[in-house]
Amino acid sequence: MMNQIPERSFFLNTIFFNAHHSPIGSFSTLTLGYRGASGGMAIGLSQPADKSFYLGMQNSDESYTAFPFFETGEDERLRYDAEHFEADHSEGIRTYKEINRTFRLCTDTWIAGNMEAVIYSQVESIGDPAVTPREEMKKVLVPGVLMELTVDNTGCDKSRRAFLGYEGVDSYFSLTGVTEEHHRLTGIAQGGRIGIYTDDDSVLPGAGFSAEQILSETDYDNLVNAGGNTALLLMEVLPNTKKTYRFALCFYHEGRATTGMDTKYYYTTLFEDITEVAAYSLRHFDEYKARCLNSNVLQGGSLSPDQSFMLAHAIRSYYGSTQFLIAGDEPVWVVNEGEYRMMNTLDLTADHLFYELRLNPWTVKNTLQWYLDRYSYTDTVRFPGEEQEYPGGLTFAHDMGVANVFAAGGHSSYEKAGLTGCFSYMSHEQLVNWLLCALAYGTHTGDTDWLMKHADTLEQCLFSMINRDHPEEGRRNGIMGLDTVRTKGGAEITTYDSLDISLGQARNNLYLAGKSWAAYVGLAEFFAALGKTELSDKAEKQALLCAKTICSAYHDEGYLPAVMENGNRSKIIPAIEGLVFPFVMGHRESVSEEGPYGFYIKTLKRHFLNVLKKGECLFENGGWKISSTSNNSWLSKIYLCQFVAREILGIHTCGTKEEADKIHAAWLLDSENAYWCFSDQMISGKAAASKYYPRGVTGILWTLEN
């Protein structure tokens, strides 16, 4: 059974936080949970739709009460009859005052009054489309989520009406009631894109200018028109009756999904239209529900309630950003970057890696291959402030495009020349990220055929990394020293683009040096296994140089400077981040204090213990501060480094788990932050950037502990 989140008072601080309820790979969502018109059903948005979602019931006095996910604005009928229209000044729909919520990985249950609503959203492994039977692909990729609505009218001697509906977000289509005869469905929908359907023929659809107008209408014929932008499904519950209704909340984008490279959604090869999606979902409701209740993704390790909440929340946000496309006959797996909607950002791919290796390893291979085939380039490099160019080598773009537009080959939507901060190039970091993902994929899955096929590419990557160290062999130190000429006088940056120099600058950066060390370790092991001794020795030499250079920078005050130049005194937690990759590759001796790099592991451990202190890399309340000189702290990286600290370095304190977890969970549930589902970048605990974000699935590493 699913490792369900235990009930505890912590979650009672607020139940009103938005969460994604998203089909896998459809870049669509029902976002729900924050008060007001703050969520809704949408495809491809960078934030919640900010529309009303209605779920309520008639009271014994014939008034109506609903969950508080709506707002009552100016009556839209005023646009049509500005001179004579008189608004209805009755009380309107009330909101429930006492509400219970049970939030779990695949179910979200809301109870109030005489209603219980359970939303089911799958978390399942996607089979490799090259070998997985079509029917299994349909089960996992059906672009819809399910809802069970139980209405209890026992003890009441008259019928009462319940209702479910939403305010439309798609201005292209009107929101209308639907009676679909072929599949015997009743629903409300905007065109063939977004809709809620049921196969219960007692349910009636109605559309209008507002939920209040629909509920107050006495002539049903007035509800079958297409006016307004609100629609409800109406249920008449008989006296002294308790009834459960089942609904499919469906999404469908037909035809072209992207430009720059023509693609369509993979699910369009499985389902003809949205009504087929609805019919299939309702026909397989019991199976879908069972899959949700039996998901085992959170099993493993010893997750605390706070960790379980954060990881479930992050996984939901990850799926809200996923987009499974097909270009011709080629599958294209895309994870959009939350509010930024950048496509397959490579530095996020390196963090999604651990989750995808757990559930869908083929998606890692798919992304790496598209990067190699379409988003790689060969450059030259130079020292800062100098004009002379030296050989660089193969490297990779930052992303594949943005907002459903694939970038031109060899380029990203993000990187620009002449900059030293945000939007500059990440050529070295992305080279390292591609390598780490490729090596981890091959070793973790045992897909040696794929690694062997790309042995020449890995060799090119090795020499590209060495060339970015120093053009003279005797002056190399194992870390990046030259920038790509694409910066045109600027400077390369790291994934921590919005932080200060402690984590932003790529050259001589401690964080990036640690990941470079991990790439050299993986390359040395790979070439040794191939019997390519010379290449293995080169990689091992670079790994040792890198480790020794880092250790030589250890400050008398007991820490490693974040940037190993110019007397930098910033302290960072992600100094230890790179250790996760050899661990995942299975090279456990490389991250052992008794192994060949024991001196390096011991130095990192001393550094971490010395900086994880209040006033340094802890906020005063115990939350993790990834840099001593910035209040911008990223939850995804915190989760990753927590795993490294505990599982690899063996550091088990309240500060590395329980105490910190409470604070980090509280960040997500903050009254302002809770609107954004999962947010990554927190400035002093407030969501500042990277909102509606997928990256928090690094927390899946917690399930590997113990």
The tally of helices reads 17
Main sheet strand line-up: 7-8-9-10-17-14-13-12
Protein structure class? alpha+beta
Shape: elongated
Can you tell me the residue ranges where pLDDT is under 50 for at least 5 consecutive residues? 1-12
| DSSP strand count | 28
State Rg: 27 Å
User: Helical amount among residues, as a percent range?
Assistant: 25-40%
Outline the biggest β-sheet. Answer: 8 strands, antiparallel
Annotation keywords:
eight-stranded antiparallel sheet, alpha+beta, 706 residues, disordered N terminus
Describe, in plain words, how this protein is organized in 3D:
The chain is of the alpha+beta class and about 700 residues long. About 30% of the residues lie in helices and about 20% in strands. The chain contains 17 helices and 28 strands. Helix 5 (about 305-320) crosses helix 17, helix 6 runs antiparallel to helix 7 (about 360-375) and helix 13 (about 535-550) runs parallel beside helix 15. It is elongated and about 90 Å long. The relative contact order is 0.10.
Task: Give the secondary structure arrangement, pairings included.
Layout: E1 19-21, E2 28-32, E3 40-43, E4 53-58, E5 64-66, E6 94-95, E7 100-103, E8 107-112, E9 115-120, H1 134-141, E10 144-152, E11 160-167, E12 175-180, E13 185-190, E14 194-198, E15 204-208, H2 211-216, E16 230-237, E17 242-251, E18 264-265, H3 274-283, H4 285-293, H5 305-320, E19 322-327, E20 330-335, H6 346-359, H7 361-374, E21 376-382, E22 390-396, E23 401-402, E24 405-406, H8 427-445, H9 448-453, H10 455-467, E25 483-484, H11 501-504, H12 510-530, H13 533-552, H14 580-585, H15 598-611, E26 632-634, H16 635-648, H17 658-669, E27 681-683, E28 686-689
Parallel strand pairs: 5-6
Antiparallel strand pairs: 1-2, 2-3, 4-5, 4-11, 7-8, 8-9, 9-10, 10-17, 11-16, 12-13, 13-14, 14-17, 15-16, 18-19, 19-20, 21-22, 21-25, 23-24, 26-27, 27-28
